[in-house]
Write a structure and sequence with these properties.
about 150 residues; eight-stranded antiparallel β-sheet; single chain; alpha+beta; globular
């Protein structure tokens, strides 16, 4: 299943990670979590953009913790992951992700995990303001994409 190196890499990816997208579009095959991974590797200009693909989802639970956060309508809670735990049980991988007090707590059970680094230009061209403070997730809703296409 997961080797020691992959577990260590996942721990670095999810240490002080800013979630940019939680992609359920291929839910029957995989769930992709896009993060700015501050501790993934040494970096100079831009924090590494990393996608973690959870393949063969068996279970997914999310607990939202933002009910006591009061922000203006044009601002959003930033989803930060500080801690992760990854263990294997009965040929399944159990992942727990948690972080800032106002960030969701996520539990995922899956069959495999892949990690890939992607270029920032993907998001820069799709959504130029994706990295502004208090922004929503980087990939907009279907309704927002339709509004952008009509412009």
């Amino acid at each position: 299943m997961l080797g020691v190196n992959k577990k260590e890499t996942l721990a670095r990816v999810f240490s002080d990670a800013h979630v940019l997208d939680f992609d359920l579009s291929k839910w029957d095959k995989l769930i992709a979590v896009w993060v700015l991974a501050d501790h993934y590797k040494e970096w100079q200009d831009r924090c590494p953009l990393v996608v973690v693909d959870f393949h063969g989802i068996i279970d997914l639970h999310m607990h939202f913790n933002n009910k006591n956060v009061d922000l203006p309508n044009d601002q959003h809670v930033q989803w930060i992951i500080y801690k992760s735990s990854i263990r294997e049980k009965d040929n399944q991988i159990v992942v727990n992700l948690s972080g800032h007090l106002s960030s969701p707590h996520v539990d995922i059970v899956c069959r495999d995990i892949t990690i890939r680094e992607v270029s920032h230009t993907i998001l820069d061209s799709l959504q130029p303001d994706w990295n502004k403070p208090f922004s929503p997730l980087a990939r907009r809703s279907i309704e927002e994409l339709i509004r952008q296409l009509k412009r």
